[in-house]
Structures are given as structure tokens and as C-alpha cells.
Design brief:
Helices cover 36% and strands 11% of the residues. Helix 1 runs antiparallel to helix 13, helix 2 runs antiparallel to helix 10 and helix 11 runs parallel beside helix 13. The mean pLDDT is 96. It folds into two domains: 128 residues, Aspartate Aminotransferase, domain 1 (Alpha-Beta Complex), CATH 3.90.1150; 262 residues, Type I PLP-dependent aspartate aminotransferase-like (Major domain) (Aspartate Aminotransferase, domain 2, 3-Layer(aba) Sandwich), CATH 3.40.640. It has 429 residues and is of the alpha/beta class. The protein contains 13 helices and 13 strands. The structure holds pyridoxal-5'-phosphate.
């Protein structure tokens, strides 16, 4: 960090003045009167995404069935076309990414292909800080194959309850492990794992490896193909701003193209022959083979529109600003919040290379503090047991937003404002 940084509003404004991505803020609808720090749960609507959805509706209205080939862009190859654009975002070769399905369904499909247990190697390795849906999916696959959903899923333990040590993962890749599935960035602490190191370790030990990129895509650059990752999957509604429940994505290394998908369907058929309606499977020669059924066009249109903004800003510039924003947030938390009653602790790794796009502040009264923040127009989120997650999203958040958020936090604890709010979290934390 820059030692000249100051915990003042003027300084925050000065950082905004030097921000090369500042103009992108105007590309987004920001809920009136709020400071939005929750883009790692649901990214905001851009004008570009809004237009793309309206254009998809117009295509349906004006062309009806003709839209499959004649809409702009045509619906029939939307998953593949968008996949090519996203490939640039994650360092993949064209044909290795397709926009399809939902995150968890994609994991199921990929497990169906790449979890190939043998008598000797029958285990899956994951970790105890995983997003729960991934664990449910992996246990489901073990059960489907008559294996033990508890014993055959090995979970790397966290040493501190926040992070996973790469060494511990590597040590756990024994000759019983067939497949390793891990997140890139942990949804709670925001720790970024060393994906190339883990990929090398898995391959040296004879296991395949796949990553859930939901919390890193759009805010951290990736080089999936150079790293030689076997597969990956992610949602598009967080840092990629594709809208609630929008179509997700998957990556399959070209080395594995031709492997049958776990959950085959006609949308994964060779595109030019799909309408032959043959009962014999002839899958697409690339990641497109992992599509299942008809692409949800309206839920994909926004992904396409939103992607334009991210590609225009560029991943390197986004990452550079993201690290400055999170650095400034951690700096302000140290300066203004560390003497607070009961204290806040920063649960996110301080080394930039180990951090994704959000910062986790821990406080025993986190639930009530989050409610107090919301009533002041700051939108964070809460993750049990005691984490306030703050995501200053580079495309639409400012250093001033970060400053305001921390000032509100300081007042809320100093004045004990949070005591006016009932404990207990809402249905959506
Ligand atoms: C958000 C998120 C998901 C979401 O899964 P869906 O199937 O889209 O609901 C999965 N994994 C991680 C790590 C996430 O952060």
C-alpha cells in the first residue's frame, strides 16, 4: 500500500479523480440513495444489459420463431458466441467456454464427465469453506454412484476458520483422490487461491481439477488454458452483472473435448446437425457439447449486454482498481474501526495476490450492524456467523463510496446504533 494514503474524505475524492475507470459508473443504474457494496451477490443493471434484454424481447415480438437465426444476435448460437467472448475474459481458447445452464447444474454436468472413480482412486477432494451448493452436488454424485457421500468426499480443513492453506490441499491429494474441486475465491473471507499451483499439484499427483469461479470472474483475471485447468464453471450475475438467475458458464480444457457430457442433451449436439433429430449422439467438438437443452434467451440476453461493459473496461484495469479499492477499505478499517467497541477484524488476506474482490469485516454484532448500515442506505451483506461482506465493485463503486461506508460503520459502533435493531438474520442474509 501507498504510505501516503489518508483516512479523509478529501483523499478518497482524490483517488476517484485519478481513477481511469471512473466513467463506467454512469453505465449503470444505481438504486437511488444507496451505496451499493453487494455486487458480489448481485451485480447492478447496466444500460447495455437493459438494451440487450429489450432487443431480445423485440426479436421475439417481431420475428417469433425466426429469431433463432435472424435475431440480432441470433439465439441458436448464443451460448457459443457468448462463450467465445467470455473465453477472452478467463484466458481460455475459443471453443473452451460456453454460456449455458446454471452454476450448480453445470457442476453436476461436469462431475458427470470428470469424476471417474476407480477402485483405487475413488475420492473427491473439496474444502470445508466451500459454497454449500457445490458440496451438495458432490455428495449427490457420490450417492448416485453407490459411493459414500460422507467418507468419499474429503474436505480440507481451515486452520483459522477463514482461509485454506494451499499446502494443506496439496498434502491431501493422495493416490485415493480422483478429482479436486475448489473455489477460486472463497465466498466468505474473499481469499483467492493459487489456481496454477493447485492445478500443477493435482496433475503431478494424478488427479483432475476443476474450479468454481463464481466469486472471481469479472474481478480477477484468469489464464485457465495456460494453467491447464481441466474444467471450470461460474455464475454470471455477480461481478459480471448478468442479472438475477441469468445463464451461467462453463469451461472445458480442449484436451477433454470429445469426452461425453455427464448430462447429455440435444443442445450439445453438433450445431449444424442438431435438427437432423437423430437418436444417435454426435456431440459438438468443443465445450458446446456440455449444453443440455434450449438456451434461456431472455436470461442470456442481459449477460451479453453486460459483458460488453466488462470487456471494454478490460480485466487488467478492473483488477488494478479492485485491489486499490479493497486496499483502501482495509486501510480505513485499520485506521477508523480497529479501536471500535468489540473491534472489527479484517477476515480477508492482506496480501493483494491472495485477495478477490470483496472484504470481510468480522464483528460479533455483524447481523445488527448490517441492518443499521442498510437503514443508512449502504447495502452490504451478512454471512454467518459474524461476517459483513463489502464488495466495492470497480465498474460502479468509488473510493468515496468506500469512505462513506467505513464512516457509517464507525458511527454505528461508536454510537451503538446497532442496538436499535433486533438480532437474527433475514431470509436472504
Ligand atoms: C454464487 C455462487 C454459486 C451460485 O450457484 P447457483 O447455482 O447460481 O445458485 C455457486 N458457487 C459459488 C462459489 C458462488 O459464489
Amino acid at each position: 500500500m501507498d504510505s501516503s494514503w489518508q483516512a479523509t474524505e478529501d483523499w478518497a475524492r482524490r483517488l476517484d479523480g485519478e481513477d481511469p475507470l471512473a466513467r463506467f459508473r454512469e453505465d449503470f443504474h444505481r438504486p437511488a440513495g444507496t451505496i451499493y457494496m453487494d455486487g458480489n451477490s448481485l451485480g447492478l443493471l447496466s444500460h447495455s444489459a437493459e438494451k440487450a434484454v429489450l432487443a431480445a424481447l423485440a426479436g421475439w415480438r417481431d420475428k417469433a420463431i425466426g429469431g433463432w437465426l435472424e435475431a440480432d444476435p441470433p439465439w441458436f448460437t448464443l451460448g457459443e458466441d457468448l462463450g467465445r467472448l467470455q473465453a477472452a475474459l478467463v484466458g481460455a481458447r475459443p471453443g473452451e467456454v460456453v454460456v449455458t445452464g446454471s452454476t450448480t447444474v453445470n457442476l453436476h454436468n461436469l462431475l458427470g464427465s470428470f469424476y471417474r472413480p476407480s477402485d483405487q482412486r475413488r475420492r473427491i477432494l473439496a474444502d470445508e469453506l466451500d459454497f454449500p451448493s457445490d458440496i451438495y452436488a458432490m455428495r449427490g454424485h457420490l450417492a448416485l454412484r453407490g459411493l459414500d457421500p460422507e467418507g468419499d468426499l474429503m474436505l480440507v480443513r481451515s486452520r483459522d476458520g477463514r482461509t485454506i492453506t494451499e499446502e494443506d490441499v496439496v498434502d491431501a491429494i493422495t493416490d485415493e483422490v480422483a478429482l479436486v474441486v475448489l473455489p477460486s475465491v472463497f465466498y466468505r473471507s474473499g481469499q483467492l487461491l493459487d489456481l496454477p499451483l493447485l492445478t500443477r499439484a493435482a496433475h503431478e499427483r494424478g488427479a483432475l481439477i476443476g474450479f468454481d469461479l463464481s466469486h472471481s470472474v469479472g474481478v480477477v483475471p484468469h489464464n485457465l488454458s495456460d494453467w491447464d485447468v481441466d474444467f471450470a464453471f461460474w455464475c454470471n450475475y455477480k461481478y459480471l452483472n448478468g442479472g438475477p438467475g441469468c445463464t451461467a458458464s462453463l469451461y472445458v480444457n480442449q484436451r477433454h473435448h470429445g469426452t461425453p457430457p455427464g448430462l447429455a442433451g440435444w443442445w450439445g449436439y453438433k450445431k449444424d446437425r442438431q435438427f437432423d433429430m437423430s437418436l444417435e449422439w454426435e456431440g459438438a467438438g468443443d465445450a458446446g457439447a456440455w449444453q443440455i437443452g434450449t438456451i434461456p434467451v431472455l436470461a442470456t440476453a442481459a449477460v451479453a449486454g453486460a459483458l460488453r461493459v466488462t470487456l471494454e473496461a478490460g480485466m487488467e484495469a478492473i483488477r488494478a482498481k479492485s485491489l486499490r479499492l479493497t486496499e483502501y477499505l482495509i486501510f480505513l478499517a485499520d485506521e477508523l474501526l480497529s479501536d471500535a467497541p468489540d473491534g472489527f477484524s479484517v477476515g480477508t488476506p492482506r496480501k493483494p495476490a491472495r485477495r478477490g474482490g470483496h472484504v470481510a469485516l468480522e464483528h460479533p454484532e455483524a447481523v445488527r450492524i448490517v441492518k443499521a448500515l442498510c437503514s443508512r442506505g449502504v447495502v452490504p451483506d451478512f454471512r454467518p456467523p459474524d461476517v459483513i461482506r463489502l464488495a466495492p465493485v470497480p465498474l460502479y463503486c468509488t473510493f468515496e463510496d468506500v469512505w462513506q461506508t467505513v464512516r457509517h460503520l464507525q458511527e454505528i459502533v461508536e454510537r451503538r446504533d446497532y442496538k436499535h435493531y433486533p438480532p437474527g438474520r433475514g431470509t436472504i442474509a
